[in-house]
Design goal:
The complex is a heterotrimer of chains A (about 130), B (about 325) and C (about 400). With about 130 residues, chain A is mainly alpha-helical. Chain A contains six helices and two strands. In chain A, helix 1 packs across helix 3. Chain C folds into two domains: about 270 residues, no CATH class; about 110 residues, no CATH class. Helices cover about 70% and strands about 0% of the residues of chain C. A two-stranded antiparallel ribbon of chain C has the order 1-2. The radius of gyration of chain C is 25 Å and the shape is flat.
Chain lengths: ~130, ~325, ~400
């Protein structure tokens, strides 16, 4: 089972980090549609975070349609096309801000492409821990 | 014991998966603690003054304040040690003071724990004979996770070890409400993480409500869902932690020419704090990160770094909005 | 409410639990066991073991020589039991006095050990957050103290009776058993009296010192107030004397040997002090632990007592040195020597009690006291003055009686 990553020192709300992380894991295909996500208890214990925070992240992910809940069994990743759009939009947003930063720093298009390729080749992104 | 082993142990042991549900948002749950116009005076000193607050079930509530803000007094009132001077402290609708019915569900870990006996074996027997929900299995597990032997002399241990011993006993008593004064104080990072894991499990499995008091915001910011700020006996605000941070951003920027706060404001930013060191400017603004980036990028900055926002900064902002002298509070 | 809580795993819940009171009582008695053993040994040492050391022959001779009925001239009354005069054998006298002394020490030491947790913040936090009531804590402690003391008394008298019986002196036992029983009851009354102090003060030191001070002040006052010719007559029984003796129950225990009291007296006394102690314990807030008693409100009323005692003692002392006063046939209360002594003594008494319990006359430069700068000093004087007023009332009453 894949666990999302959380950095408690980043200053970003933890439920937000959980959500982002799941969006990323789903977009990268590291979680398959209809695959079960860790339970609130498991995730909270594994990461040493507040179960209510996990619950909140799951609730919002469910509202966004990325996951669905089966009462008594847990949370599962959904597979609707719309969700993929959400993913793409997420990624596009990240790229956009990166491009903006690059642009202000005076980095050229070619360098930017190189940087992106480098990022993709970084083992950390390709296979997130667990 | 390594972290990994601990995690595995915590995960593997219980076959009986959680039957507790924490599906409801915290705000919609039944309140476990209700302070109704709660005041506590010591002679002429007002340790707590007309505090109103409700703490929902299965939540992890952080009570923050400097020395003498009234945190310990609030905890002692919740534990039924003090009788309120005015107002009431309720646990699930029952007055707490001198009421064993309420107190059997509550365990209080004081800032200076006291042990009636000098080893955990005898202490656990004492707790077992008093708390109906005492879980011997959980206790055995806890003494394996925390490095304290059952027969070790407690009076010879350090402050941090004392706290761990107190926490072992408190958690194994399986309280429905756990009160902790400066809980993470004196714990090393590994133990801190272990404690968080155990508490997380008790909250998820058992619906335990946790109230942690601390002077240190950082201790609580990654673990609580709600925080309350006490200052000079008054509860300044109670807020969901995530909501506090929302809509506030901090950034480090630099421009080719000098830029004033007014210029940034006219560009559409709601500047809360502006400090310039040479050409390097640091701002705190009441805008989302996206807004901040869009607006600032239009001004062609040389440098634009969005910085993580600590809870401390959020509090400073929240307090300055309520016109309190901030330096006094968080010094 | 949809929020569910997992039910108990059952392991802890199946244990049968004692009621809170018995839990505390058992706990306290267990904590007290070493002290009980020590006092048990000391009691045995000063009575049966001392008798054994003395030897059968000497004790028998002492017992036979002094086996006479007491009468007024001896300073003893005949002890009646069911209308029959009982002979209290004076062979027991020295042993008895040491036992009584030990018994008061035992009450203070064992009580102090039981009530010490009330005076520390950590222990108060621990005890009061447990699922038990204040009432249970007080009763559990009081019961443990009474049971501990009773055990000590019981073992002692069983051993003593055994020796006396074996020595073939059982006819002297009857009178003594009754005295012993009354002494025991009186010691229990003193226990109740001490419970009041244990429940009132903020520090163990204050509890014991206040207890001792009141004990010292009461009989001293009585002796000086009494006609000098009668000094030493510990049986003097005016209502005022009876009243003052109530505030010296530990010393009263010594008098049981010479008193012919109804058992109802002890019952009333014991019930009164225990109920009063319980009342004080219930009113006692947790935050009193470690606080100086001088800063507590109830202390003012006790301070008046110290003023009265100091006033009476010093006033009478000054009056005794004023030789002209005898010739004038003027009432004592109007003599300058007495008045000066009384006021001086009242203030001294006030000062002593303040010093002991940590309330000083120093000005505390706080926001609160800044407004009324003279207050603390003025207060002391006002209360001393009240003490003198009460003193006059007491003296007047005592002269009328």
């Amino acid at each position: 089972m894949i666990y999302p990553e959380v950095n408690v020192l980043s200053g970003i709300p933890i439920y937000q980090q959980l959500k982002n992380s799941y969006h990323r894991l789903a977009a990268l295909g590291l979680i398959q549609p209809h695959e079960q996500l860790p339970s609130v208890r498991q995730l909270a214990m594994e990461l040493g975070i507040n179960p209510n925070t996990v619950q909140k992240a799951y609730r919002e992910l469910e509202q966004e349609g990325l996951i669905y809940a089966v009462p008594g069994r847990g949370n599962f990743l959904s597979d609707s096309e719309r969700e993929l759009d959400v993913e793409h939009e997420e990624i596009r947003r990240s790229f956009r801000s990166a491009v903006q930063i690059a642009w202000t720093a005076g980095i050229e298009r070619a360098t930017l492409h190189e940087l992106l390729d480098e990022c993709i080749d970084e083992p950390k992104v390709a296979e997130p821990e667990r | 014991m390594t972290n990994k082993e601990t995690v595995e142990r915590l995960n593997s042991d219980r076959v009986n998966e959680s039957t507790a549900t924490i599906n409801l948002p915290v705000e919609e749950r039944e309140a476990v603690i209700v302070a109704d116009n709660l005041s506590k005076y010591f002679g002429a000193t007002k340790a707590l003054d007309k505090v109103n607050c409700r703490i929902a079930g299965a939540s992890i509530f952080g009570l923050i304040g400097s020395n003498g803000a009234g945190k310990s007094t609030f905890l002692r009132l919740a534990a039924g040690v003090y009788r309120p001077t005015e107002g009431s402290m309720f646990y699930r609708g029952q007055v707490v003071f001198d009421n064993p019915c309420a107190k059997k569900d509550i365990v209080f870990v004081a800032d200076q724990p006291y042990f009636h006996f000098d080893n955990l074996k005898k202490m656990s027997a004492l707790y077992r004979s008093l708390y109906e929900r005492w879980d011997q299995e959980l206790y055995q597990e806890l003494i394996r996770i925390f490095p304290i032997g059952e027969d070790q002399r407690l009076d010879l241990l350090s402050k941090g070890m004392h706290r761990q011993a107190a926490l072992i006993l408190a958690i194994a008593a399986k309280p429905r409400l756990l009160l902790m004064d400066e809980a993470f104080d004196g714990l090393d990072p590994v133990m801190r993480q272990n404690l968080k894991r155990i508490l997380a499990r008790q909250v998820a499995d058992d619906g335990m409500t946790t109230l942690i008091a601390s002077q240190n915001l950082r201790e609580l910011e990654d673990f609580c869902d709600h925080v309350g700020l006490l200052h000079e006996g008054g509860l300044l605000f109670v807020e969901e932690l995530d909501k506090l941070r929302l809509g506030l951003s901090k950034a480090q920027i630099a421009f080719r020419e000098d830029v004033t706060a007014e210029q940034l404001k006219s560009a559409g930013l709601e500047i809360l704090r502006f400090s310039a060191r040479g050409s390097l400017i640091e701002i705190l603004s009441r805008n989302t990160e996206a807004e901040l980036r869009t607006i600032l990028n239009q001004m062609n900055p040389l440098l634009l770094d969005v910085l993580p926002l600590t809870l401390e900064e959020v509090f400073i902002y929240e307090l300055s909005r309520k016109s309190y002298v901030v330096s006094e509070l968080l010094a | 409410m949809t929020f569910q809580i997992q039910t108990d795993r059952g392991k802890g819940g199946t244990l049968r639990r004692k009621s809170g009171l018995w839990w505390i009582f058992g706990r306290q008695l267990a904590d007290l066991r070493s002290l009980i053993a020590i006092f048990m040994f000391l009691f045995l040492l000063v009575m049966p073991i001392a008798m054994l050391i003395l030897g059968r022959d000497i004790f028998t001779e002492l017992a036979n020589r002094h086996n006479v009925p007491y009468h007024e001239a001896d300073g003893m009354t005949v002890v009646y039991y069911l209308g029959i005069p009982l002979r209290f054998n004076r062979a027991f006298f020295p042993f008895h006095l040491i036992v009584v002394t030990l018994s008061s020490v035992a009450v203070l030491v064992m009580g102090g050990s039981l009530f010490r947790p009330l005076y520390r913040r950590e222990t108060v936090d621990f005890e009061w957050s447990l699922p038990l009531t204040k009432s249970q804590w007080f009763l559990g402690r009081a019961l443990a103290l009474v049971v501990g003391l009773s055990l000590v008394y019981l073992v002692n008298i069983i051993a003593t009776s055994g020796i006396v019986y074996v020595w073939g002196l059982k006819e002297i036992l009857g009178g003594y058993l009754l005295v012993y029983l009354k002494t025991y009851l009186s010691a229990i009354a003193f226990t109740g009296f001490s419970l009041v102090f244990f429940s009132l003060v903020g520090r163990l030191f204050d509890a014991i010192v206040l207890n001792i001070m009141i004990h010292l002040a009461s009989p001293l006052m009585l002796l000086i107030m009494s006609n000098p010719y009668y000094i030493g007559d510990i049986r003097k029984q005016s209502s005022l004397h009876k009243l003052v003796w109530l505030f010296a129950p530990a010393f009263d225990t010594y008098r049981e040997i010479a008193m012919d009291r109804n058992f109802l007296y002890y019952v009333i006394l014991i019930v009164f002090w225990f109920v009063f102690g319980w009342f004080c314990a219930m009113k006692r807030p947790a935050e009193w632990g470690g606080r100086k008693s001088g800063s507590m409100r109830w202390f003012r009323s006790i301070q008046t007592f110290f003023s009265v005692a100091g006033g009476i003692i010093a006033g009478n002392l000054f009056y005794a040195f004023d030789f002209t006063s005898f010739q004038l046939h003027q009432t004592k209360l109007l003599r300058p020597a007495f008045i000066i002594g009384a006021i001086l003594g009242a203030f001294l008494g006030q000062l002593i009690s303040s010093a002991i319990t940590g309330k000083t006359l120093q000005r505390v430069p706080s926001e609160r006291t800044a407004k009324r700068r003279l207050h603390p000093v003025l207060y002391e004087w006002l209360w001393s003055l009240l003490g003198v007023v009460i003193l006059y009332a007491v003296e007047l009453v005592s002269q009328v009686i």
